[in-house]
Write a structure and sequence with these properties.
The protein is an alpha/beta fold and 311 residues long. The chain contains ten helices and nine strands. It has helices spanning 18-34, 60-71, 92-100, 116-121, 139-153, 171-181, 211-214, 237-248, 278-281, 289-309; strands spanning 49-54, 75-80, 106-111, 127-133, 160-164, 186-190, 206-208, 220-223, 263-265. The protein is globular and about 55 Å long. The relative contact order is 0.17. Bound molecules: N-carbamoyl-L-aspartate.
Length: 311
């Protein structure tokens, strides 16, 4: 079936239309079913090559992209950045151009600096997929979050979604907001002042300092990790975490304020016992955390498929 998807790269969710998002999620739905079958692999992109260029640590996202590309029949190369020529002083762009010169088809990039994925996309022939760009965007995470919500709620239209935690440094929150807004979602962001950012003022979201208040009537709650490794964190982890936990750790009792069938999401890695209680993280009635990971492979297969089919 021909699709109207016409993007060369996937850099952020802002650039996707509602129809694009539905096209990706519908194809991901097909791949999610295939991923449960006996033979999970197809040869649609046999002989094509995907390269994972990750400048930040990653377990699930890198593995997910690798599995996704392999299930589509592709060869996958992982660049261990610490050992690459970057450590010999080669510029990031030169590295990308050199990898691109090897006639690759997809370049999956994660970097700590906002805008890196776009600058690489501006120069290479391969299709660039942003796998986490500073605090700016993480489109495949937002797409898989949307899919986890749509699978359980049946729709994305007009939902109330609460996003709580370290919003200042969260590329996941920014990408989720851009995506969910296209479906008319009402979004509340919840955080203490030290985790808020003025960036959100123009994004059409409600801001709330209180967790119970913020999750009122929510259909879904996205809990975010405290980004300890990032710069600009005016937060003394050891000293301040007990206070943070007392006010912002989500537990079963608080869920009474939300819809009875509320879903709890977390992009991972979870700081166990800090963003939400262990009991809640592991309760399949509310928590879709492992569903997010499962669907992530299908979403990435769909993204690779649509980008590479675009030509
Ligand atoms: C997120 C990321 O890297 O932005 N994780 C992920 O991709 N699974 C969120 C996080 O690191 O907290």
């Amino acid at each position: 079936m021909p699709t109207a998807f016409s993007h060369r790269h996937l850099i952020d969710t802002e650039a996707l239309s509602k129809a694009d998002i539905e096209t990706i999620l519908d194809l991901a739905h097909f791949y999610a079913k295939q991923n449960c079958s006996k033979n999970k692999k197809i040869d649609k992109f046999y002989g094509k090559t995907s390269v994972n260029l990750f400048f930040e640590n990653s377990t699930r996202t890198r593995t997910s992209f690798e599995i996704a590309a392999k299930r589509l029949g592709m060869d996958v190369v992982n660049i261990p950045v610490a050992q690459s020529s970057i450590s010999k002083g080669e510029s990031l762009l030169d590295t990308a151009l050199n990898i691109d010169a090897m006639a690759i088809d997809a370049l999956v990039v994660r970097h700590w600096e906002d805008g890196t994925a776009q600058s690489i996309a501006n120069r290479v022939k391969a299709h660039v997929i942003n796998a986490g760009d500073g605090k700016h965007a993480h489109p495949t995470q937002a797409l898989l979050d949307a899919m986890a919500i749509r699978n359980r709620k049946g729709t994305l239209d007009g939902l109330t979604v609460a996003i709580c935690g370290d919003l200042a440094r969260s590329r996941v929150a920014r990408s989720n907001i851009h995506l969910l807004k296209k479906f008319g979602a009402k979004i509340r962001i919840i955080a203490p002042d030290y985790f808020m950012s003025p960036d959100y003022a123009e994004m059409g979201v409600e801001t709330c300092g209180d967790l119970r208040e913020g999750i009122r009537d929510a259909d879904a709650i996205v809990m975010l990790r405290i980004q300890r490794e990032r710069e600009g964190l005016a937060f003394d982890f050891e000293a301040q975490v007990p206070d943070y936990v007392a006010s912002y750790r989500l537990n079963h009792d608080m869920l009474n304020a939300a819809k009875p069938d509320v879903l709890v999401l977390h992009p991972g890695p979870v700081n166990r016992g800090i963003e939400l209680t262990d009991e809640l993280a592991d309760d399949p009635k509310y928590s879709v955390i492992l569903d997010q990971v499962r669907l992530g492979v299908a979403v990435r297969m769909a993204v690779i498929d649509l980008l590479l089919s675009e030509g």
